[in-house]
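Q: Entry one of two.
A:
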Amino acid sequence: MGNHFHFLLRIKSAQEIFEFKKIKTEQRNQIDISRLISLQFATLFNCYAQAFNKTNERTGGLFENPFRRIAVEDEIYFNQLIKYLHFNPENHGIVHDFKQYKNSSFYDIATMKKSFIDKESVLEYFGGIDEFLQFHETKLDEKNIISLLLE
């Protein structure tokens, strides 16, 4: 989309993060895992901004606001959030049918397009590709998520 994007990510456990970052056991109690995760996102967005600026021969900030995140801990919210994210390009008038938006995980999963998305886990959650597609045939019920949206 032209002025924003959404990620729905599964964050590894603190233990997995510590192991990946090779943080010693005796140092782990001193680390704020939430801050560590935020710093990783900041690094990602800064690298993206630098690459974008270099590619487009521009300078300066790329993002108006810092990123925001919400922990998803409720299954109803999780399910409706998936629909919200997938329907978003259609709701913003970018496409007439969200299924045709090629910059979406829905498109990657529905077409089994090669990408970084863990399609197997997503399809396992839904019970298969047919169930995944059927899930998207019903409209979003925003009342379950409206209070949690950041937009």
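Q: Entry two of two.
A:
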Amino acid sequence: MIRTIFTAVAGFALLAGAQAGAMQKQPDGTTAEERANTARLNAEQQAKAQAETDAYNARVAAAAQTEAAAQATYAQETAAYEAEKARVAALSAEERMKWEADVAACKAGEAARCAHPQPEPRN
């Protein structure tokens, strides 16, 4: 019986010590409960910051992808414009060479290659 009483008293002492330990202040002046709350708040803040960082990185990647697509489109349109400009310049050069050849032939006496006068517009 005495052994049971000592065991019970020891158990109660351990429980009281654990509760007192939870309420006891640490050397930095905080309790275990305050430390647990601080750890929980820190974890919540870290999760929020990570979510914001992930969202920011997603926006940056989307902006980079949009910019790359715009640059590719610009390059394609610029190449098409330059190709059309070269085609028109070649056509113009070809027409000018033909005209110069017709002028030279006309001056040499080949009447068929001379320009025919345009009729005057009637008013």
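A: Comment on entry two: Residues 32-107 form the longest helix (76 residues). Helices lie at 2-23, 32-107.
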